[in-house]
Amino acid sequence: MNAPEINRSSSAATPVDQIQARLSGFAARLRYEDLDAATIHTAKVRVIDTLGALIGGFSGEPCRAVRGLAARMPQAEGATVIGTRIVTSPDMAAFVNATTARYVEMNDVYHWPGSSGGHPSDVLTPLLGVAEHVHATGAQLLNAVVLAYEVYLRMSDAIRTPGFDCANFCCMGAALGAGKLLGLSEEQLAQCLSMAVVPNNALNQARTGHLSMWKAVAAGQSGRAGVFAALLAQAGLKGPNAPFEGKNGWCNHVAKRSFRLETFGGGSTPFKICDTLIKPRASCATTISSILAAEKAAARLARIDAIEKVHVEVYEAAKVGMGTGEHHWNPDSRETADHSIPYVVAAALIDKRHTPASFNDTRLWDPQLRALLPKIEVVANDAFTAAYARLPVEHQTRVTIELAGGERLVGEAGGDKGDLSQAKSDAEIADKFRTLAEGALGGKRVDAALDALWQVETMADVAQIPRLLAFT
């Protein structure tokens, strides 16, 4: 007796995962022609800003370590490790470049009431590597960047995931953006997303307590995983069914609840990339208002040893995240220091203007700074907390220095006193890039790079970008 024939084309046995279908369908349909001029310009700004951050972080210890690893894995038709002439596999290049772009804490950030937040620019250098690999145009790169940001930020808005890192959103965005650049079909994009979601759920332990170099490397790992998932889908592999809505899927075990993605950018709906924020200082975004306020107070401070006490008033999320716990008064690594309000305030008072050098070992272990840390207290201000919870978000902070003679020096930030949320002009973006890149590239090459990057949408092949930025 012959065995009954199995109908493998039947869809009845495979229920549709609505979240997977919404994300992969959006990715399949989005075209460069759907992007308005403001969104295209915003994407170009993020390309320039992220590449500047990468060059600024190039000498970091974890960045050097992962470059060495990539050098042992050459792939002639792969993607470039930015800053070098090393060509490795697209997923390995994603790992190195995203790690390096995150290291110096100058890449963009997302703050939105009720959102998980995060660093959506973590998707950008992984996508540049894939775009180089396939010789994509500048327009195709920008389309993939807007797509990946949209995925990251709509997921961030839809669900908070306590205990899990926002790098998980990067993995999803990078997977679909990379898949778009690789020319995957809608079905392949769905499989790509499944292979990103199910195996890769980073824990927030990477950003808890005393931090290690993995804080930056988490970005590289998530970008690498997203690109690798796209390459697997291109090769014909298929992921688990119902990665979000299945019994043991992402909703039940990561999000801990069901949710829907109802809205994406396009038409009359703005793309979420336009809601991301450009950093004016090299530090965790939640500490930046404390830096700006401390710099204002420091401008009138003659002697550090005259300080009796420093009172820092911040919004509740900053107090809880960056001003609670002994590690914030006893940082033992750069990674912990740039997530510590006491540290950044102390460094700003000493340095007058905070720079990436404010986290080097000389400043980190400076006896003067260490003596100042116990004099700093951080408290939540209810009015500042309310300002942080509405739109437009305001990062209000007040730093009050009490001196030995009884004098008080006050510095304030937030709202019209200078805010992370304020839009940056093209000139400010160019100046930031120049500050981060000129030491490596020199003035003439910085100018040439900026000229090209401001016109990235006209590039016939984005493989020219790594050549513009090679300096080792």
Assign the CATH class of the largest domain: Mainly Alpha
The CA-CA distance between the termini, in Å, is: 70 Å
Q: SSE string, helix = H, strand = E?
A: HHHEEHHHHHHHHEHHHHHEHEEHHH
Task: Summarize model confidence as the mean pLDDT.
Answer: 95
| Proportion of helical residues | 40-55%
List the strand order in the largest sheet.
Answer: 4-3-5-6
| Strand runs, count | 6
Q: Rg to the nearest angstrom? A: 23 Å
Content of β-strand: 5-15%
Q: Tell the overall outline.
A: globular
Which residue ranges are poorly predicted, with pLDDT under 50 across at least 5 consecutive positions? 1-11
What is the number of helical segments per DSSP (H or I, 4+ residues)? 20
Broad structural category? alpha+beta
Largest sheet: 4 strands, mixed
**Quaternary:** single chain
Any idea what the CATH architecture of the largest domain is?
Answer: Orthogonal Bundle
Question: How would you describe the overall organization of this protein?
Answer:
The chain is α+β, with helices and mostly antiparallel strands and 472 residues long. It folds into two domains: 258 residues, 2-methylcitrate dehydratase PrpD; 133 residues, 60s Ribosomal Protein L30, Chain: A. Helices cover 48% and strands 7% of the residues. It is built from 20 helices and six strands. The chain has a four-stranded mixed sheet with strand order 4-3-5-6. Strands 1-2 form a two-stranded antiparallel ribbon. α6 runs antiparallel to α7 and α8 packs antiparallel against α9. It is globular. It starts with 17 loop residues before the first helix and ends with a helix.
